[in-house]
Protein 1
Amino acid sequence: MKLLHVVGARPNFPKLAPVWRAARHEGMDQVVVHTGQHYDDAMSAGFFRDLGMQQPEVNLDVGSGTHAAQTARVMERFEPVLVSEAPDWVVVYGDVNSTVAAALVAVKLHRRVAHVEAGLRSHDRAMPEEINRIVTDRLSDLLLTPTRSADATLRAEGEPEREIAFVGNVMVDALLFAVERARLTQFRRKIGAGAGGVVVTLHRPSNVDDPARLGEIIAALRLVAEERPVVFPAHPRTRARLEAAHIAMGAIQLLPPVSYLEMLDLVDGSHAVITDSGGVQVEATALGVPCLTVRDTTEWPETVSCGANQLLYDPTRLAAAVRAVHRLVPPPRPEGWDGMAAVRVIDCLRTFGR
Ligand code: UD1
């Protein structure tokens, strides 16, 4: 059986790595196509090194652009690769523009598509990722879900039962594989941030594209930083917005994007995490580190119901919330967040339709 994996942006890479490893263990033939949606070393090649993977066999070099331009470029460049590779499965991950673009090309060429992390919904159609999730799920033949609520969502949307397979959370596989190596980096200590601090990530257009909203969030973070170290590895789009709006950072320690292992070490050593990223909500929860999500929706409701995550759209509530939270010991682990999700993915790919 031959698999063709398509990834493009930073959040895809930790989802790919455990599936790629499980397929290799089974001796499957596989090719990784990187669309090049993310291209900086810190956002891309460094992740493959940290995750113990070789660099992708194919890179489509699509780069940045408007949503339409980026999606179209992936489609155009992916089509001939798919024709020549002729895999049994095209495996797509998560919810980025590359995910939906590859799925659309594949179904039209009558290739079977498996979606890893199917069924997640924020129910906020203003998020580009929500559109990508809905369309990718409609197109895919096999919907591999990370949570039981994702199964329920797909059923409610009318997906046939034979297409839905609960496998659990591949991001937790990646985390458990890497966390000891992450601790050995001692990254938090090396940057002088000490223990008991807060790590921040923000990149959603709804938080960073409006200078007034971004200014309010940073003002709240400056207050947090008066009480404990605040480390903020900033996505390139966030840094550009901060610079354009001349927002003062106070005692907040702004960093360039950090590697996968460095980020895990930062999260693991933190008192709390403040984020608008889906992946970081999962990573904080799986480590038992309290997460404060600066949004009014989440595609990961299990992180909230298990007590690890709170949605706080109003940034003026952040400082009090940071004071109130405590690490969860042992870390909560929703069903299927057990380090074995990728093995179940491979089983499903092998047995589908039998
Ligand atoms: C993308 C994903 C988002 C994911 C995020 C994680 C979509 C719709 N969005 O958003 O779901 O959470 O990645 O990082 O697919 N840039 C660089 N270097 C890079 C990549 C991007 O400097 O390697 C800059 C460029 O200025 C670019 C901007 O970041 O225009 C945005 O990149 P893009 O890939 O369009 O979307 P993200 O905001 O990264």
Protein 2
Amino acid sequence: MEKVLEFIDNNKDLFLQQWFEVLRIPSVSAQKEHKEDVRKTARWLVDFLSEKLGLKSRMIETDTNPLVYAESPKITNAPTILVYGHYDVQPAEPFEEWNSDPFEPVIRDGKVFCRGANDDKGQWCAHLCGLQTYLALHGSLPVQVKFILEGEEEIGSEALSKFLNDAGNRELLSCDALLVSDTSAAGPKIPAITYGLRGVVGFELKLTGPNRDLHSGIYGGSVYNPAIALAKMLSAVIDDDGKIQIPHFYDDVEELSELERNALANNPFDPDENKKQIGIDAEFGEPEYTTLERRGARPAFDINGLTSGYQGEGGKTIIPSWASAKFTFRTVPNQDPDKIRENLRSFFESILPSGVKMELTSEQGSGGMVAPLTGKYIIAASNALERIYGRKPLFVREGGSIPIVAKLRRELNAETVLVGFGLDDDGIHSPNEKFNLESFFGGVQTSVALWEEFGKIEYVN
Ligand code: BES
Ligand code: MN
Ligand code: MN
């Protein structure tokens, strides 16, 4: 390992330069004006994977953003590992809240600030540099490595999902284990393997009242205000304890076992530190669950955006013609997005006031996941992390979603290894997203150790 650490240390500038190059391309999948940047990032990846890592790489066109695929040669009596990641990033808005240009990486205080620094460019870039290191020291890889990188994880992974419906494509991606670095570590210097993710189902509710904005003096008190209807309907979804009030919502939610609760309680997560970090003076949620249980193993309802009426300078005395909201449910394994859709619609229909029309639309949604902890690739990953961090990783369930992971796991029938290097305070999706240099280089080192450990696995073709 000494040689590895030395090589990484000697090549810090090169690794940073490579990472910064791809960070500068604003591959925002949600915004049309960045369509070309998304393609440019895919091109950058294909070039890097073929020129710097010598992999057979190509761009795969889809109806939407291209996929990037790469592979090294199959090795007899050694497994195939598929690395999944996403090269698209979230929009940088609100721009005015950034302390520096969101697409010009800068180092301050041992941290790299840039949109995508963590999510997910910094994380897969650690693997690119890890493989570069391995190849420089050993000449060839001990296992077959495949890459599938997509450009629309942040908007629902539609193209990759469709891609997986084809048997030939599944054959192309066939592997023994799926390696994903798009989650968090348990803390600085505290490695984690994520064995659970929540699903997510997104909705938009639009309520329409009068056929135009009305004078609130002439009509107030005699017309149902759609903004008030929206506020009431949304607040009916959840009570003060964070319990979702839609009938049958919890029917399929599985209770945590005592064993799992104990395991989650081993996490050094500090609720007070967490409150301080995000600037709140009290936590929220189901009182009988801990913060980490609420995040990782319980469903949640959140409003993501509210729009109605006059938002400009000064006041405007109106009854708005319409009001709308975007909101999501985070789901846990075994909850069916379709059932949630149906139950929510019936619930809203039952409380919709007369005089207001409702339009409820929803996105495809994805299910949650829990993976078993017994597989040999998980054990190999645990060994790799222990070698680098000097302690065993914590096994965690995280609240975020990576919509395609459950499907990849199912369709490829592969063991899933989620090893993330990020920290909760990296501000992913927020202004001033950052990735600590320590997280990045720890990721590069771990990547090398992972290839070494995967290479040691007994395997017969
Ligand atoms: N990398 C995140 C998910 C994540 C973050 C998992 C931290 C665990 C810890 C991913 O890029 C993400 O943001 N997913 C979205 C999916 C949505 C846009 C469909 C999410 O969770 O909101
Ligand atoms: Mn991500
Ligand atoms: Mn994300």
Protein 3
Amino acid sequence: MNRSVIVLLCTLLLSISCKQESETSNATVKRSPNVIVIFMDDLGYGDLSSFGHPTIKTPNIDRLAYEGQKWTSFYTASSVCSPSRGALLTGRYPIRIGLGGEKHRVFFPESIGGLPSAEITIAEMLKAQGYRTGIIGKWHLGHLPEYLPTKQGFDYYFGIPYSNDMNGVKWGLDTFFDTPNINMWNVPLMENETIIERPANQHTITKRYTEKAVAFITENKNNPFFLYLPYSMVHTPLFASESFLNTSSRGLFGDVMSEVDAGIGQIISTLEKLQIDKETLVVFTSDNGPWLMMLEHGGSAGLLKDGKGTTWEGGMRVPGIFYMPGTVHPGIIDDMGTTLDLLPTIASLTGASIPSDRIIDGVDLSAVLKDKVTSPRSQFLYYRKQEIYAVRNREYKAHYTTETAYQGNNQKKVLDKPLLFNINHDPSEKYNHSEEHPEILKELNVLVEKYKESIISVPSELDKYPIEE
Ligand code: MG
């Protein structure tokens, strides 16, 4: 064999091996994307610097908003914790999953119920696709063994089973404001199905959530994963670790936000270091609006009216951010999106199957994420407990019942004539147009009635899974 033939053969072999290598690396790139859902507790629409707060600094979250999509009309399906979390994980309004009733709004340490096991969560949906699934943070969908995250599709759980202010020695504003110490709330910290610390050391809890999240991502760098990261702050009582205390001009609330923001920065740099940032969808949002009765310890809804517990915009419109370099087309989206839409959107991006035996209220937003097309969502129902208080269709929102946040001066008003706002012109809900537009009110009524029929079509749902408190 002469020399030139040998060189030719070597070149050929080298090019085959290069091709195989590049096919392997292409296969890695094309694998199903990882999904991280960061779900804040009681963070208001106005509590990020990228959403207009003048003194809270959130550079890492802001980067996701600027390099990804910042949604300015993004809603959570309930203005309180448990139903909001159930809706996000199932893509269904709380009323359909047993979490919309008078007695079922929020779980407490004495509650005996939880998210019904028959419900299919994003974790279960993705587990069927071979994903590793983890939840790090606050669960709040039932703390008894049969309702824990490990029974709802999660391989790994680290966090608290209900809110960080529960199981307290007493409840009252002074408890939150007078130098709170962690022993005042007997909150358990769990790993999988075991209580590993009680009371949870809330000074270090944010830091530990981040560390666990980084470890989970690193362990699963070679296989698709779903990480649900519901940080238990900025729900009061507020605690920050030593390195963040007294660092923000917004006070303790700002310290706590800085620590969460730094944690999110660590998570993103972990994705970059592992070279999986382009294969990972990161979603950032909040479970409900700010808890205004907590005064300076509560957040801000910015220009929106009222906060947590209400069906005014401040109770249910929250920051919405989607980030995935190379896939999510950067920009500001003022079309509607909701936490209900995460399940179908994630299904579409990962190739998972949406549960077909039940009504899913979410819609697939993936085309908006990729191509900035018009959002397929044009309607949204604002529930309080089991009642529809308000409805939005495109730019118009009608209120049928209004009520201030619970506790204190709680006033429910069933309105003789609904209020009508053009929510695009008037996000603060100041200027009522019901007299000028009876035809729009009529249209909104039809929509509500049509929706109610879909609830009537599953009448046994709530009875089937009685949840007591
Ligand atoms: Mg909350």
Protein 4
Amino acid sequence: MQNRVGIIGAMDVEVKTLKSLLTESSEKVLMGLTFVQGKLDGTDVIIVQSGIGKVNAALCTQLLILEFKVTHIINTGIAGAMAHGLKVLDFVVSTDALYHDMDVTGFGYKVTQIPQMECSDFPADKAMIAAAKEAFDSLKEAQGHSLVAGRIASGDQFVSSKTVKESIRAACDPACVEMEGAAIAHAAYLNKTPFVIIRCMSDMADDSGESTYDFNEETAANLSAALVRSIVGKIQ
Ligand code: SAH
């Protein structure tokens, strides 16, 4: 079967460049979301802006799977750096994704654990992770930046305080923090659809968060999109 890759970004800045590269494109609007179908360097893709936050991301993922029958999902975007040594404009490719704001510890669950569910830490597809690493090694836009393969933690919160950053680190030690990836991973997991999350760091998720973010938003979003572009044709 030929691949049909769904590409999700939360914000326009994360998807507009990829959309502009599509050939044979057409649009369909569902639930207020504009799904743009077309070919990206010869591969069938559907690109969509989900909106910010976990519920927007999960609903969008479910539509991509049910209505557009995607074979793979890539989440592209920006994030706050958490891993030691990771800097602004470095990259993270997900090994797994979870919710840092899931807390039912009052009933004896581990922080981040989803009650009554067999999985709380959704594993990304190994072949897609490998494709990301291979694409990164030959991406000229990424020269001078590093790529870390690691856990991504998502929550409905912009992390811009050292105290919150440290408590998330203590809870689940992620490589980066953002607001959609784990919800996309969750929906993909329930549908048995392979996924990977690619994020380029816009900020350090610390007290300098908003200003660093504003300065780097567009550059980081475009770097992530450039890596996603070169992964799409490498997925087996
Ligand atoms: N600037 C936007 C809001 C952006 S919210 C506005 O004014 O409307 C932050 C977005 O970037 C989310 O989609 C999230 O996934 C990602 N992100 C980047 N850095 C983050 C951080 N430190 N904490 C949480 N999300 C972050």
